[in-house]
Each structure stands twice: as structure tokens, then as C-alpha cells.
Amino acid sequence: MDKSAPVGPYHTTQSAASYLDYNYDYFRTIVKKYRIPRRGPFNNRFAQSDLDAFMADPQCFLEKPKVDLPVKRKIQTIPL
Predict the structure, then answer these.
(1) Tens-place pLDDT, residues 50-59
(2) What highest taxon heads this organism's lineage (predicted)?
(3) Class of residue 11 by CB neighbours under 10 A (exposed 0-12, middle 13-18, buried 19+)
């Protein structure tokens, strides 16, 4: 995913689905699965540059798996 600032125009969910030639309900599923960034004061807009980047390489929008690091635990001794 390109780290540059998003470029408009900005689309609503309905117009973004139309722009990508997807069904509205399917696009909403895609947004949740691929974490396509939402923009605007109410997070209800999609930048056309983000949509173009998604179509070019959808895998870059997948959430990266979290790596579980080992936890260092301090052993406490209980006096008898």
C-alpha cells in the first residue's frame, strides 16, 4: 500500500462499490476483510486512490497477523 496522502475524489460506500463494479453488500464485506481505509470526518468516504491501490494489489490491505512474543515472567518466592 502506498504511504502517500490519499487523493480524491472521495466516494460514499455506494459510489465506491459502483466505481469498483461490485455489488454494495459484497463491497461492504470486502471493506471489512481487507481493511480498506475510510476517510472523512465520519469515516464514511473512500479515497479513489485507495480504491485504485486495492484493485492493483488487494493483498497489501490484508491485516498482518500479530506475532505473539514470549512473555517474561518474574518468579515470586513465597516466604515460609
Answers:
(1) 999 999 999 9
(2) Bacteria
(3) buried
- What is the distance in angstroms between the CA of the first residue and the CA of the last residue of the chain? 59
- Say if 44 falls within a structural domain: yes
Task: Give every CB contact of residue 8 below 8 A, 6+ residues apart in sequence.
Answer: 47, 48, 49
pTM, to two decimals:
0.70
By residue range, what is the domain housing residue 19?
A: 12-61
Residue 39 forms part of a structural domain: yes
State the total domains in the chain: 1
Residue 26's pLDDT is: 97
